[in-house]
Design brief:
Layout (H helix, E strand, L loop, with lengths): L1 H21 L3 E3 L8 E3 L3 H15 L5 H4 L15 H27 L3 H4 L2 H16 L4 E3 L2 H7 L3 E3 L2 H20 L6 H23 L4 H25 L8 H18 L3 H7 L1 H14 L12 E2 L5 E3 L2 E3 L5 H12 L5 E3 L6 E5 L3 H9 L2 E2 H30 L1
Antiparallel strand pairs: 1-2, 3-4, 5-6, 6-10, 7-9, 8-9
Membrane topology: Multi-pass membrane protein
Catalytic activity: a di-trans,poly-cis-dolichyl phosphate + UDP-N-acetyl-alpha-D-glucosamine = an N-acetyl-alpha-D-glucosaminyl-diphospho-di-trans,poly-cis-dolichol + UMP
Subcellular location: Endoplasmic reticulum membrane
Length: 396
Amino acid sequence: LALIGALATHTAIPLVAPLFLEKGCYGHDLLKPHRPRVPESMGVVVGAIFFILMFLFIPVPFAPWFTSGHIGPPLPADPFPHRKLAQLLGGLLALFSMLLLGFADDILDIRWRVKIWLPVFASLPLLMVYYVTFNTTDIIVPWPLRAVLGRHLVHLGAAYYAYMVALVIFSTNAINIIAGINGVEGLQALIIGASLALNNLWFMVQNPSARDGHLLSLYLLLPLIGVTAGYLAHNRYPARCFGGDTFTYFAGMAFAVVGILGNFSKTVMLFMMPQIFNFVYSCPQLFRFVECPRHRMPRPIRTTVLLFPSRCSVRDIGPLGRLMLHVLRLLRLVDVETDAASGAWVSCSNLTILNLLLVWRGPMTEPQLARTFAAVQIGCSVVGLGVRYGLAHYIF
């Protein structure tokens, strides 16, 4: 399925791209000298191929129950796994809802204060299926805290569902926030998806009893990896298409779905460490303690092909924002420009991980920056695997 998805997506995007341009569904590549028009919202093509593959695949895991002894092996003695089917269909419904809402955002440019809540509505089918089929809201207490709490399990109840909603909101927006250079959205989705697939395979080998949840996760992840690879072939530098919010919301929701249905949501967060860091790092701007421009992507210098950190004004910054920048400056996490005569702060680099890489490593070309970020994402995935299969055994 992954190979078919990759080939189908790679073939379909050039075929439909002219139609998107004709209908006015395009964006401008702001980092290129002439800001060329690039077909946007190609995430809808990626999602369409993903769903075609998944709809064709749905009968496959349940084939033993559809065949008779005359055609194939005898029918299984176990009853039909309605719970497993409900989980698969519930996950697909949540993904389809997020794909639709992402496409609506691309077309209608929904305001941020409104679209931040869109994942909540898309997650309702998923949460309902979880309640009916799992409804497990206990978490294991780390052993250092067991003596304090006097137990090894804590029942969270409704708080666990609130946590899952928060996970959905974060996942769908995390990939979208780290954007602005060719290929970076697709690279995030591809690396995180491959890391989760590797985690599933590894866990199934170690714990065959937990096979079903991780197998269901693979059913969704492998086609996602395939269609993302096909999309990335056209989205990498120089980009011939943009995925738009349609793709980033869809991919982010996929990671939330597999984490929730596979009961390994904490592992999903381990593989999204750069996204978590980027969110925390961006909080001073996201919550308006520091000026937050509409576009915070790195900026090109027209006389070169190099990218530099984009900047925002801090002349009128408040005391709390100034304190935050002082802390970030001490940690070498921001570049602050000062007036040569008065020493007053003038501007600072925008608080995103892409700008931070440019602050640390100096100007880079767009492909170099994408590769550097990919290396960071891969490194964090390796660390995440080490924590999951090494350190976790000593904590839990």
